[in-house]
Amino acid sequence: MNLHLSSADQAFRDEVRAFLRENIPAEVARRSRIAMHPPHNDDRLWWNRVLNKRGWAAPAWPQEYGGTGWSPLQQHIFSYESHLAHAPELRWQGIKLVGPVIYTFATPAQKARYLPPILNGDECWAQGFSEPGAGSDLVALKTTAVLDGDEWVINGQKLWTTEGQYSNMGFFLVRTAQTERPQQGISMIVLDMNTPGVTVRTIQMINGDVSTCEVFLDNVRVPKDSLIGEPGTGWAQAKFLLGNERTSSADIHKAFGDLARIRSIAAIEQRNGRPLIEDPAFCRKLAALEIEVRTLEWSVLRVLAQAPSEHPVTACASVLKIRGSELQQSLSELATEALGPRALREYTREQGFADADDDLLWPDVTPGVTVDQMYLRACTIFGGAKEVQKNIIAKVAFGF
Q1: Which residues 6+ apart lie within 8 Å of 363 measured at CB?
Q2: Is the pTM of this model over 0.90?
Q3: Which of 12, 57, 229, 329 allows an S-S link to 105, with CB 3.0 to 4.6 Å?
Q4: Residue 134 DSSP class
Q5: CA distance 83 to 71
Q6: What is the end-to-end Cα distance of the chain in Å, rounded?
Q7: Domain segments of the chain: what residues?
């Protein structure tokens, strides 16, 4: 295994670093560093368009649909450097989730209609999979779509729809038929979130954020061609999408950013009259987490590069999802521990976005730590609960 970048990849990294340095204003970087779910979309929409103008909005997409043609390692370098530079993170729902579904399964007309606005950030997407009583168990979903002439009529409810309040488009799993095998009756449908009958309500989380929503669909009528693929193929599309999401959910680039944040906090916080970063016990904890992050990084790279494995990629993606989400929790807990008593101040997002006032009691590393720690208690649940992922690994990898 070659643990060093080639000269070409080093040059690519330098190009990315220069681009990020020249194009990200300091105030945008600060807001991105503080907020996992910013209270507005402006920075991300602006950054989406900057990247699209450069041709970098969707690194993993095929070139024929607007992708970059980068190798898996170059994609990794770009994401890594973007996180360290505190670039606004583009919304996953369009670029990473529904976009690949559309260019893989949709008709040419659907690709022409939906892909360009995703690339340019002109349309923001809501993901409607989970429901009351059908979270990680998507087979149990009850939302229906019934064909009435040239329209589908949709009725049901979706839950935990991240940032649905910002979305003008949505992709939803619906039941289009009652079949002996429930998976065979599921389809994926897209719709305008401003369609009559669509109601979005925000849900306040434990950290005070309203980053997720519930969506009510009451006799929502959409054109017949709003279905992606043939009726009943939604389960295969969902598995394809969730495989991408669970690989992304390893969130390895965020993990490296979290390590940097912990070091910044530990350089400021004092323990027994000296910086916390000099405390041997704390350094052991930090080093142990860094080893885990770097180990996970190589696992992610192997999956992205489609390296030979004795296990199916579905099982590998579930492993990455489990380890990545557990690491996110561990990193957020260590950041909170490093902050010490200052972690007792929760901060709202708006307070965190306020300009630093040079108050030594509340240094600039303080905002965002506690609210992220509380939010990330859910990361072993969303995107498929850890227990469900273990069942997938047992079945797909080991045949149990």
Answers
A1: 268
A2: no
A3: 229
A4: B
A5: 19
A6: 32
A7: 7-90, 125-233, 249-398
Least Cα distance to 93 among 171, 196, 14 occurs for: 171
Check residue 389 and give its pLDDT.
84
Q: What whole-number distance in Å separates Cα of residue 347 and Cα of residue 264?
A: 19
Spatial separation of the C-alpha atoms in residues 63 and 69, rounded to whole Å: 6
Tens digit of each residue's pLDDT (9 = 90 or more) over 275-299: 999 999 999 999 999 999 999 988 8
CB 101 within 8 A of CB 240: yes
CA distances to 163, 206, 374, 387, 396 from 381, in Å: 17, 15, 13, 9, 20
CA atoms within 13 A on the CB side of 285: 18
Output the average pLDDT for the chain: 88
Give the C-alpha separation, 48 to 376, whole Å.
25
**Strand 274-275 vs strand 125-128: parallel, antiparallel, or unpaired?**
unpaired
pLDDT band at 348 (very low <50, low <70, confident <90, very high): low
What are φ and ψ of residue 229, in 5° steps? 75, -165
95: CB partners within 8 A, 6+ apart: 57, 58, 118, 119
Q: Supply the pLDDT for residue 352.
A: 55
Q: Cα separation of 321 and 327, whole Å?
A: 10
User: 76 or 111: which carries more pLDDT confidence?
Assistant: 111
Domain 249-398 has CATH 1.50.10.10: no
How do 151-162 and 144-148 pair as beta strands? Answer: antiparallel
Distance CA 382, CA 325 (A): 9
Provide the b/e sequence for 147-184 (b: ≥16 CB within 10 Å): eeeeebbbbbbbbbbbbbbbbebbbbbbbbeeeeeeee
Strand ranges for the chain from DSSP E:
125-128, 144-148, 151-162, 169-175, 186-192, 198-203, 212-223, 227-228, 270-271, 274-275
CB of 122 closer than 8 Å to CB of 167: no
pLDDT for res 245: 64
**Amino acid found at 13:** R
64 has pLDDT over 90: yes
**CATH 4.10.280.10 applies to domain 125-233:** no
Q: Is 196 exposed, middle or buried (0-12, 13-18, 19+ CB in 10 A)?
A: exposed
Q: Helix, strand or coil for residue 218? A: strand
CATH code for the part of the protein at 7-90: 1.10.540.10
